[in-house]
Amino acid sequence: MAIPVIDFSKLDGDSKTKAEALAEIANGCEEWGFFQLVNHGIPLELLEQVKKVCSESYKEREQDFKRSEPVRLLNRLIDGNDGLSAENLKKCDWEDVFILHDDNEWPSSPLNFKETMKEYRTELKKLAEKVMEAMDTNLGLQKGYIKKSFSNDDDDNDEPFFGTKVSHYPPCPRPDLVTGLRAHTDAGGVILLYQDDEVGGLQILKNGRWIDVQPVKDAIVINTGDQIEVISNGRYKSVWHRVLAMKDGNRRSIASFYNPSYKATIAPAPELSGAEGYPAFVFGNYMSVYAKQKFMPKEPRFQAVKAL
């Protein structure tokens, strides 16, 4: 069983080809919650440069990771000399990570890191908006509905948030004892992942089974977050996923999040209201709940934010 791979360029084809692409995207959203895009319009030379600068950036962080809490805990457990148990590692992720957004400080090395990632994020943001327009069409919503719902109606300058998480999952001597990234659903809107095309480890939960998200060279993996689930009134479910720690290889993962403004009010689209009945809430309030419950079942999060 493989995650759907969709030729995104078909959206720009004739009416028949476009309809086929929309149907494939609808299936990816409704049946999987994850799908991969090829021929997505992002220059392949840029993707290669992104891989290069992110890998070089990690080399400068590698020694810091070796001194990190997960590494120290695992080494203590392997040594077995202080009564530490495997339970101590269940709340750890075998992950080196930093975040990029428009207002925080980015790594200054390598020299072309900032320039490359700025260009990449610009291209990826355009792709995210095109994906959301396809979702609008498939859900029977007005073009631009999802993007508009991610903004604060009371402030035209309060736009959706776009962040990028650069992660590496280094080789782990005991992947049976620690997870690369614990199972969770994503809090936000549309997630766009440029994953390693050689080292696997990403899995989604489908019908009670963990399924690999197979590496596909130059593909962008798309998944829907909790806010898309709410706007679609449950038609597009956010999906549990995780990253396994691997004994060999250093997995690179660059995930970007097209999320609502913290002041945006999220609710089921009026055209899709019905039995599911998700509550309306301010996204910032949801994030306050999510920060405490990220690795817990998602349904109580919706009830908790309803009470705020």
Would you mind describing this structure in some detail?
The chain is α+β, with helices and mostly antiparallel strands and 308 residues long. The chain is 35% helix and 20% strand. It has helices at 15-32, 44-59, 62-66, 69-79, 113-139, 145-149, 226-231, 283-293, 299-306; strands at 5-7, 34-38, 96-100, 161-169, 181-184, 190-195, 202-206, 209-212, 220-224, 241-243, 251-259, 265-266, 281-282. It is globular, with a radius of gyration of 20 Å. Pathway: Alkene biosynthesis; ethylene biosynthesis via S-adenosyl-L-methionine; ethylene from S-adenosyl-L-methionine: step 2/2.
The computed structural class is alpha+beta
Q: How many runs of DSSP E, i.e. beta strands?
A: 13
N- to C-terminal separation?
41 Å
Strand order in space, largest sheet: 1-2-9-6-11-4-3
Strand content: 15-25%
- Overall helicity: 25-40%
Shape: globular
Mind telling me the C-alpha Rg? 20 Å
Alpha plus pi helix count:
9
Succession of helices and strands: EHEHHHEHHEEEEEEHEEEEHH
The chain-level mean pLDDT equals: 93
Low-confidence stretches: none
Enzyme class: oxidoreductase
Domain Fe2OG dioxygenase: 160-260
Pfam family, one: DIOX_N
EC number: 1.14.17.4
Keywords for this entry:
308 residues; seven-stranded mixed sheet; 13 strands; 35% helix; 9 helices; alpha+beta
Tell me briefly what this model is.
With 308 residues, this protein is α+β, with helices and mostly antiparallel strands.
